[in-house]
Amino acid sequence: MKAVWNDTVIAESDDTVLVEGNHYFPESSLKREYVVSSNHRSACYWKGQAHYYSLLIKGELNPDSVWYYPEPLEAAAEIKGRVAFWKGVTVA
Questions:
Q1: Per-residue DSSP letters for 51-80?
Q2: Which of 48, 50, 60, 67 is least buried, going by the fewest C-beta atoms within 10 A?
Q3: What's the pTM value of the predicted model, to 2 decimals?
């Protein structure tokens, strides 16, 4: 699987976990040179609190387009240490 935004591969792995239609990639597969910090947070009743990263590629910012659960609830333990994408990031 590859995650692509702005014609750039931002993560690639054969080891993804599919949850609610989203592929969660190992965090180690995320190309950190394209990632910037975000203070955005959201909550999921069964996964816990999501944290976000933004992408900065070729001078374009895609805010809060990467999310992860640093301490997922027990029901979502399989996504610990993994990241997922949205906001125009293509995963295929």
A1: EEEEEEETTEEEEEEEEE-SS--GGGGGGT
A2: 60
A3: 0.95
Contact 64, 90 (CB under 8 A): no
Can you tell me the distance from the alpha carbon of 13 to that of 42, in angstroms, rounded to the nearest whole number? Answer: 26
CA angle 41, 47, 49 (to 5 degrees): 20
Query: φ and ψ at 73, to 5 degrees?
Result: -65, 165
Mean pLDDT over residues 70-81, rounded?
98
Q: In what order do the strands lie in the sheet with 8-12?
A: 8-12, 2-5, 90-91
User: How many CA atoms are closer than 13 Å to the CA of 35, on its beta-carbon side?
Assistant: 19
Residues 12-62 have pLDDT tens digits of 999 999 999 999 999 999 999 999 999 999 999 999 999 999 999 999 999
DSSP code, position 92: -
